[in-house]
Each structure stands twice: as structure tokens, then as C-alpha cells.
Amino acid sequence: MNKKKVLFIATVAGHIHTFHRPYLKWFHDQGYEVHVACNGEFSDIHVSKVWNVDFERSPVSLSNFKSLFQLGKIINKNEYLLISCHTPVASVLSRLSSITARRNGTRLLYTAHGFHFFKGGSLWSWLTYYPVEVGLSYLTDAIICINQEDFDLIREKGSSSTNYYLIPGIGVDSSRFQPLSVNQKMELRDVLNVDRNNFVMVYAAEFIDRKNHKLIINAIRLLSSKIDHFIVFFAGIGALLDELKEYVTSCGLDEHVRFLGYVTDIEKYFQISDVALSSSKQEGLGINLVEAMMCGAPVIATVDRGHCTVVDHKVNGILFPQNDSKALADAIFEMYKDDALRLKMSEEAIRKASRFEVKNSLEAMSKVYLKFLD
Fold first, then answer.
1. Which of 61, 67, 62 is nearest to 9 (CA)?
2. How far apart are the first and last CA of the chain?
3. Cβ(294)–Cβ(171) below 8 Å
4. C-alpha to C-alpha distance for 94 and 217, rounded to whole angstroms
5. What pLDDT score was predicted for residue 135?
6. Are the folds of 5-169+358-371 and 182-356 the same?
7. CB-CB contact of 169 with 303 (8 Å)
8. I want to staple 202 with a disulfide (CB 3.0 to 4.6 A). Which of 2, 72, 185, 233 is the partner?
9. Distance from C-alpha of 330 to C-alpha of 192, rounded to nearest angstrom
10. What is the DSSP letter of 255?
11. Cα separation of 216 and 279, whole Å?
């Protein structure tokens, strides 16, 4: 076996690009030859080889049989010392493709960025994803979780021969996400053409059903008669974008909502915002909220295992029940009318977010890697 090769696997290249570059660099700096397998184009100076695999996000796509064959060929040919797999579909195919390789000494680690089954989740998710993850734990050397609920569940129900770890997310770069002084904040608002007097809110999320943007729109409609100057930034793209634009117009909220599309400088919008929002139905952690908190924005978010990992209710933000637009509106108004509360929560948000800095996540993860690289 080639003792110096490792492979990272994810369904799409964007996942590797967004979350795993520091980890690829760590392996490269340790002297390993780093490979990546994903669907889409990806490049990194620390990666020696990128394998394109025809992964589909849908777990029932027939093309996954093709992906299984492609991945098995790559894994068996290269004799990796360690495989690190991510995202639901890719992780299933990775473990099925690695049965022979593991018998020959390859170690396989799966990082769960949020199981699709969770407390309050649908019966369908429990009937489909839960038995798959429990069953595949028997084909995994280690499962790494980023929230307590996932960790407790899989450690109890999964294979007793598998190792289980809990880490503080996959990390946020604090050199990019930083708070600004009041003067800097106002100057940046000028640059971004945002009124200095506006109460500014931001939600960074893909426009899909799970992110539940309509809940925020319904909440601010309730607020429009109570707050004169406010604006909500929606950052992201997705299948429901056009539909939600039309919904905003039908609600008469065009002057209060700005759709940013795909942005590469989201930190600027976190830095000028008074609060960050999340109406998501479920999150593994809520990395967008950690980024906002690092910039000094307290958070208003739905009660969810991921959100509860980063948001301490009435300390660095406010948690409200799922699908309760009135509770969200009330939370926003509470933040709006109380500057002292918002300032205190901002300070606490910065403090809490420091736990999730990439250096802390990488330190925790590197300790796991080293246990399986001997």
C-alpha cells in the first residue's frame, strides 16, 4: 500500500472548495499526496489529483451505480492510506466502494455535516436515511459529527467497533470574518448603498424549501407597520429564487428586501447588519450564523440542533419555534427597540463564535487524522 496517499470525497466540488481547503493543506504539509474525488471542477495547489465522479445529489438516481463503479476503480487503483468522505450520497458510495480497500488497510473516516434524520424530522427521513447511516457505520473506521444530537445518536445506535468524535464544526476563517467599529460599519454601509438609519438584517442561504425564506418574509410583513426603516438582505441563489421574489412583491415589501444573488464578499453584509437571521428547518451546525457572529451580528434563528449548538438563547441571540412567523417578528422587534441588549448580544456572539474558528476545528480534526495514519 502507498503510505503517502489520502483521498477526500464529496458529492460536488463546491463543498470541497468551501469547507476543506485547510484540511487539504494540512495533509500536504504533513507530506501526503492529496487526491480529491467530486462532481465538478476543482483545483488547489495542495492537491495532486482531482478525480471527476458523476455523483448526483439525489440518493435514488440510477446514475449512482455508475458513480459507485467509478469510485471503486479509483480507490482500488490508488491504495490510499486514508479516505475522508463527506456529504450524504458521496459518503454512502464511498463506504460501499471501500470494502475491499479497508480489508487491505485503508482507513475510512466519514464527517457527518448534519444527518438528514433528527428530532422533529419527517418520518420519511427516519425510514430512509437512519437505517442507511446505522448500517454503514459498520463499514466506517470513524464517524465525526459537528453537533451533539448527531453524535449522541450515532454513537448509541451505530457499530460498537467504530470510533466516534465530536468536533467544533469545520471552521470559519476569523481573518476574513471580523467585526467593525461603529464608524467603519457606517462607512461600509455608504459603500454598499445602505441607509445609515436602516435596521439591517441578513440571511445567507440557498433558495430551497429547507431554508424556509417565506417565514422571514411573513415576519417582516408583520413588522412593516412597527418599524419604519429596515431592510433584509437575502444572499444566495437556488430553485425558489424567482418564486420568492414574486412573493415579496405580492406582499408589498420590495423596498424592504434586497436580493443579492451569489456573493463572494458576504462578510461585508454581515459586518453592516444589526442582526443575522435563519429560518432553516434543519441544520447540521449553521456555518452562516457563525460567520455572522464573528462579524458581531447577534442571531435570530429557529430552534434546531445546529442552531442550538451556536446560539445561546437570550445570550448571543434569540431562538424561536419552527414555522412561527409571529415569534420571529417579536424577536426582531425586541432586538430593534433595545440597543443595549443588541450590543451585549453582539459581544457575546463574537465570544461564542471564536470556538468555531478554523484553527480550533483543524486542531481537533488533525488529532483524529493522526490516530488513523500510523
1. 67
2. 13
3. no
4. 40
5. 97
6. yes
7. no
8. 233
9. 28
10. G
11. 7
**Sign of CA pseudo-dihedral 15, 16, 21, 23:** positive
Q: Which three cell numbers stand for residue 293?
A: 457572529
The answer to whether 79 and 53 are in contact (CB under 8 A) is no
Q: Domains of the chain: which residue ranges? A: 5-169+358-371, 182-356
Half-sphere exposure at residue 110, Cβ-oriented, CA atoms within 13 angstroms: 30
Chain centroid, CA 204 distance in Å? 11
Q: What's the gap between Cα 338 and its chain centre?
A: 30
CB of 48 closer than 8 Å to CB of 34: yes
Cell numbers for 91, please give them: 459518503
Query: Which residue type sits at 108?
Result: L
Q: How many CA atoms lie within 13 A of 318 on its CB side?
A: 19
In the numeric block, the cell 425564506 is attached to 213
Query: Could you tell me if 107 and 370 are in contact, meaning their C-beta atoms sit under 8 angstroms apart?
Result: no
Tell me how many degrees the CA angle 256-296-290 measures, rounded to the nearest 5: 90
Tens of pLDDT, residues 7-50: 999 999 999 998 999 999 999 999 999 999 999 999 999 999 99
Which secondary-structure segment (H or E) carries 319? Answer: strand 317-320
pLDDT tens column, 133-178: 999 999 999 999 999 999 999 999 999 999 999 999 999 999 999 9
Domain 5-169+358-371 belongs to what topology?
Rossmann fold (3.40.50)
Size (the chain), residues: 374
CA distance 8 to 84: 5
Would you identify the CATH topology of the domain 182-356? Answer: Rossmann fold (3.40.50)
| Burial call 210-226: b when 16+ CB within 10 Å, e when fewer | ebbbbbbbbbbbebeee
Residue 102 CB contacts under 8 Å (≥ 6 apart), including other chains: 108, 139, 141
- Please name the residues in contact with 72: beta carbons below 8 A apart, sequence gap of 6 or more: 97
